[in-house]
Amino acid sequence: MIDIIFGPDDLTRIRFAHSPLEELVHSVPVLAGTRRPLVHRPWLEFAAPRVTGLDLRLLLALARGPRIVPDFLAPPPEALTGHFGDELEAIAAAPAEVVRTSLDELRTNAELPSVIRPLYEDPARELPRLVDTMAAYWRAAVEPVWPRLRALNDADIAHRAGQLTTGGLAKVFDDLHPEARYETDRLRIDKPHAARREAAGAGLLLVPCVFAWPRLLVLHNEPYQPTLTYSPRGIGRLWTEETSGAAAEPLGDLMGRSRAALLTHLDLPLSTTQLAAYLDLSAAAVSQHLAVLRRCRLVTSRRSGRWVLHQRTTLADELLGAPPETAAVPEP
């Protein structure tokens, strides 16, 4: 469990921000195959051929971990809308001790992957190379879709800001993510490791990130501002202008588009509230659809703490069809 403790001043220092860099970093595991949610398949098919020839070995090793992303790789943006160039400069300027401390958290059995060791040994030499790779990756894979990502994140920030104004932090965290809950003077995040951070006037930064879906990521180490990176509402509509979900179209003709859309999102466990937000449906409508899908043995539901999480079954996978193989990211 991670606890972020708030004082009186912190509650007046809650802010939201966009981060192009966060989108880049969290798109890497999707492209690399560590995470491949069906919802991002259209982007994956677009981006994979465009990065052919880039040496992404170091970036992949840093960003593809299942639990931890090094703090220096995605520092909190200073303004509401982070400028990508400024974010890259912050990485290039990261002090050597901050880089090494972040990398120490990636160690398994006291060893770093061989591709990361040069960065650990000489951050000043290796960081500019990493930044150049990230800039090339951005131009090829993320910048072309950034207006679409930003529009979805804009809509979510407006929604969350309204919640904060009318109901405070408790309202914001009612439906932000199943792993997070607000309790009087603290934010509790259900994670495998234990940590405690006194915000001490730094407040809290909330960053919506499309490619973080469906994870919740926490930056709690000093000297950074406590930051939560979460997936925004409406992801189910993100790529609909380019594709209506080829895998779900025949199934939609059979059972209805809403139920087919629910199944495409349930490759990973999600709550009723999350599904309602991502698909712009009411929670009641989602519950009704899920009840039908459970009776047809297409969805299973289980309780996890205060949430009930739903996931599609093997039978549903077969109905949707296995995702087509996508060109692998080259690793020279």
Structural class: alpha/beta
Spatial strand arrangement across the major sheet: 3-4-1-5
Task: Please give the largest β-sheet.
Answer: 4 strands, mixed
Report the count of strand segments.
Answer: 11
Provide the domain count. Answer: 3
What gap, in angstroms, lies between the N and C termini? Answer: 39 Å
Characterization of this structure:
The structure is a single chain. The protein is an alpha/beta fold and 332 residues long. 42% of the residues lie in helices and 14% in strands. The protein contains 13 helices and 11 strands.
Strand-helix topology:
Elements: E1 2-5, E2 14-16, H1 20-32, H2 41-47, H3 57-63, H4 84-92, H5 96-104, H6 117-121, H7 123-142, H8 146-172, E3 180-183, E4 186-189, E5 195-198, E6 204-208, E7 217-219, E8 227-230, H9 249-255, H10 257-265, E9 270-271, H11 272-279, H12 283-295, E10 299-304, E11 307-312, H13 314-320
Parallel strand pairs: 1-5, 2-6, 6-8
Antiparallel strand pairs: 1-4, 3-4, 7-8, 9-11, 10-11
Structure at a glance:
The chain has 332 residues and is of the alpha/beta class.
